[in-house]
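Possible regression after last week's pipeline update?

I re-ran a chain I had predicted before the update to compare outputs. Posting the input and the new output here so someone can diff against the archived version. Not blocking, just want to make sure nothing changed silently.
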Amino acid sequence: MDTAAPAAFQALEGSGFGAFIRQTVWMYPIANVTHVVAVVVFAGAVAVIDARLMGAFAGTAVSEVLHGGRRVAVAAFGAIALSGAILFSAEASHLALNPIFQTKVLLIGLALLNVLVFELAFAPRLREFPPRMPLPATARASAFVSLATWLAVAACGRGIAYF
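New output (post-update):
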């Protein structure tokens, strides 16, 4: 069985940028801390949005929670993606073959697909819902899938080091 990573990942890891990340004393730790802090901020924003969609904070209009939470989540996701790319470049050939990392990437794709479906199918109608009005079961289900998937992504992120 061939266990070598594809050439593109080997090239990324062997590039000057990959070497810079590995060899600079502070670059990898800064990217790692940034990644963790951004994940915490993202998780908080997503948790508030999903909790509202599942029925919590019923006194607050859905549109207000979506508006504020979405802005924070998008900014934090951008920081996650940037810091994650930096971390990935330092050990791309190992991560490309790591089954937990592969699962994480798949789950991120599924979570983003859930966001897309929510934004296209449910969000436009939910903006008109007044506070305390029960939300459709489909919106609650989407929030549950979101929360469960993003938690699984975080769990995979922590598990990568062990495989």
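Follow-up from reviewer: compared with the archived run. The chain has seven helices and no strands. Marking as no regression found.
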